[in-house]
Amino acid sequence: MDLSDKQIQILEIAEKLFAEHGFDATSVRQIAKEADINIAMISYYFGSKEKLLETLLEYRNFDFRKEIAQIIEDTNLDHLHKIDTMIALLTQRIHSKRRIHKILHFEYSNGCRNINIDKHIQRKLKSYTLIEKFIKEGQSIGVFSKNVEIPLIVPTIIGSYFNFYYNKKMFMIIYHLKEEDIDDFVYNTLTNHIQKTIKALLTYEN
Amino acid sequence: MDLSDKQIQILEIAEKLFAEHGFDATSVRQIAKEADINIAMISYYFGSKEKLLETLLEYRNFDFRKEIAQIIEDTNLDHLHKIDTMIALLTQRIHSKRRIHKILHFEYSNGCRNINIDKHIQRKLKSYTLIEKFIKEGQSIGVFSKNVEIPLIVPTIIGSYFNFYYNKKMFMIIYHLKEEDIDDFVYNTLTNHIQKTIKALLTYEN
Amino acid sequence: MDLSDKQIQILEIAEKLFAEHGFDATSVRQIAKEADINIAMISYYFGSKEKLLETLLEYRNFDFRKEIAQIIEDTNLDHLHKIDTMIALLTQRIHSKRRIHKILHFEYSNGCRNINIDKHIQRKLKSYTLIEKFIKEGQSIGVFSKNVEIPLIVPTIIGSYFNFYYNKKMFMIIYHLKEEDIDDFVYNTLTNHIQKTIKALLTYEN
Amino acid sequence: MDLSDKQIQILEIAEKLFAEHGFDATSVRQIAKEADINIAMISYYFGSKEKLLETLLEYRNFDFRKEIAQIIEDTNLDHLHKIDTMIALLTQRIHSKRRIHKILHFEYSNGCRNINIDKHIQRKLKSYTLIEKFIKEGQSIGVFSKNVEIPLIVPTIIGSYFNFYYNKKMFMIIYHLKEEDIDDFVYNTLTNHIQKTIKALLTYEN
DNA sequence: GATGAATGAGGGTTCATTCAT
DNA sequence: GATGAATGAACCCTCATTCAT
């Protein structure tokens, strides 16, 4: 991953445009124009438009494992606080990288692109293993309810965020939010809601 | 909405292709070929590719209000069972129309298309009002916890589904599922998880 | 081979340009411009630039077998006159189709194009068989010398023509020819020379 | 003609690629890559791609005059043996430089390149003068037939070779040759054929 | 002298759409 | 009402060349 400043600039502009208009609706001309570079540079730097996307995904390495591991290993926090901290972390990270996640959802969820999704799956699986272990530990010491579908917890966390994000315009009406209020809302109200939801689920007995 | 059989056939093929490859990556030639009609017919019938999408969204009018209202008004069910029934209904409906929802997420969430999203927002808002009223009623009679961010409940339901769906490949590994097992999994395990989550949230006191 | 008038017009313009500037140096835009058609028509009609070339070669099916067979079977001509007639025919045909032959030499002789040369080879081989049979017959009745490398006779005929053609400019100086004299020169002086050469070879005893 | 080793290496690689794929289909990138030099070096060394071709043609100075003159002046050989020797020389030289000749045929025979062909014509004319003088001498002493189109003799020699070469694949089938047999075939069978042809022509009386 | 980044032009192809029939 | 030929714009990419270092 040796990327020059110019390359990084291109990647960030491409990320923005891909997220806004989709991969196909974004032309290399558009990227080149916004990045104020010659159109040929994109092929020169990245080989092709598709490889640019691959490079972008590699560049935005969204691997939260280390941070999650740190939280899990933190002896100062009890299990429920670890859940809070983890969710706050996830929400924050995903919100800041929401654009690249959207591209992933969009371009990857159907297997039509010639892009290798396997390593992403592998990376995610490792995060799941970490979280699963943590939850099971909590179950074994009686802090968490045993009757929980552990692998589906993360989709509930991340899905809550994204469904909010994909319906942002509606929620801006409901909550009387302006564009610049969104960050605060995510970090406070939405994060709180998700934290509460997961903690409720993990302590729910029926 | 006067649509001939041929038009409906085109819409359904377009829906499949848009969901699989995205709007931009699907060419009218492809649609025409799969529908076994002349290319010119698409412009002829729908005016343009964009208008075809609009017609498609209008055709797939996914308005659950009536059914939700029915459930809410059902005097045979207590509040918690109404939650279960509603979630089962939502999951089922969204799963069966996941393709069109995916198109909405990706083509609509960014305001770049010349497509009017307002009526969709209005329709969704009405559903929210219905659900909000039901939850508040439950709170007033002490069945539901008062400390809940009501508008964010629906994103948690639908988001859980979609984040599962967008990461389908990973969950197929985790749960050892084949493609043909997906429907059952959604209608059972995933639905149960979401039901439990929302019920936990609505009865959570801290 | 169902070709519209427009398609034939394109083929003939392409033939001219390919022969003049080579396949690679001729752009589809140039062809489209000279043929006064839209650039997209070339892909529409032929699929691609390479397929246009293939269609051209198929269209210009230069199969002399029938005429050669007629000459061979002509009972009014003795063997030496048949040689004369055959060479006159070959020279005439090749001269009139020199452009397509040049393309063949150029684009085919190196195996780099994704074009199937096999059927051309097969067709040529059949012509050779015909001529070979005729020469051997002449040898058996004592008209032709037996000490002749039969397969190399045709290269001497056609090669003489083409080496003249490829050095046309020099011969225009030597013979004080103008462009408009070339046809006559080919049909008379050059044809005579080749006829004499082959007859000399076929009757040469040493 | 001061050429460094690197320049000569570039020229030889360019010659190979031009002959294999044609001038236009060969990119400077390809040449630079195979020669393991920087792309910019080609413009730096030769000025441009076209000038590289000119330099190549100049470098491959295929002027047989001296050797032909030597043969003609050789008092140990009679006229017919001089013909044999000359043809053997021409065949050998042309075969070893067939690639550059091919380039000449195709890039030069049409006047579209901005390349000066005049000096090549001049050089060839001088060779012709030499051969013409020799033939006329033979005619005057009665060794050669007078009824011969002298300027067309050389095209028959060289044309025979090239038409064989451009149809190499067919002759490999006819003669059951492998690629590695070609050289021997050219130096023996083909050379013999051409020698016999020209001697027959020059002694043919009708 | 030599390099690799950068340029602008042009390559072939495919797009959604329209028009004449 | 329905077709297939035709359009012009835009697509991504690669070209030979140049420039700053």
Report on the structure:
The structure is a homotetramer of 206-residue chains. The first copy, chain A, has 206 residues and is mostly helical. Chain A has helices spanning 5-21, 28-34, 40-46, 49-59, 65-73, 79-96, 98-108, 118-140, 153-166, 168-174, 182-203. The first copy, chain A, has two domains: 5-59, Arc Repressor Mutant, subunit A, CATH 1.10.10; 65-203, Orthogonal Bundle (Tetracycline Repressor, domain 2). In chain A, 71% of the residues lie in helices and 0% in strands. Chain A is globular, with a radius of gyration of 19 Å. The termini of chain A are far apart. The model of chain A has no long low-confidence stretch (mean pLDDT 89). Chains A and B meet through helix 1, helix 7, helix 8, helix 9 and helix 10 of A and helix 1, helix 7, helix 8, helix 9 and helix 10 of B. Chain A binds a DNA duplex (21 and 21 nucleotides) through helix 3.
Shape category of chain A:
globular
**What structural class do you assign from the helix and strand content of chain A?**
mainly alpha
Q: What is the quaternary state of this protein?
A: homotetramer
Give the termini distance of chain A in whole angstroms.
50 Å
Counting structural domains of chain A, the number is 2
At the fold tier of CATH, the topology name of the largest domain in chain A is Tetracycline Repressor, domain 2
The interface involving the most residues is between: A-B, 58 and 58 residues
How large a portion of the residues of chain A is in β-strands, by DSSP E?
A: under 5%
Within CATH, the superfamily of the largest domain in chain A carries the name Tetracycline Repressor, domain 2
Number of helices of chain A: 11
| Low-confidence runs of at least 5 consecutive residues of chain A | none
Instruction: Please state the second-level CATH architecture of the largest domain in chain A.
Output: Orthogonal Bundle
Give a quick account of the main beta sheet of chain A: strands, pairing sense, barrel closure.
none
Fraction of helical residues of chain A: over 70%
Topology pattern of chain A, helix = H, strand = E: HHHHHHHHHHH
For the residues shown, what is the average pLDDT of chain A?
89
| CATH class category name of the largest domain in chain A | Mainly Alpha
According to DSSP, the number of beta strands of chain A is 0
Query: C-alpha Rg of chain A, in Å?
Result: 19 Å
Pfam families (chains A, B, C, D): TetR_N
Protein name (chains A, B, C, D): TetR family transcriptional regulator
Organism (chains A, B, C, D): Neptunitalea lumnitzerae
Keywords (chains A, B, C, D): DNA-binding
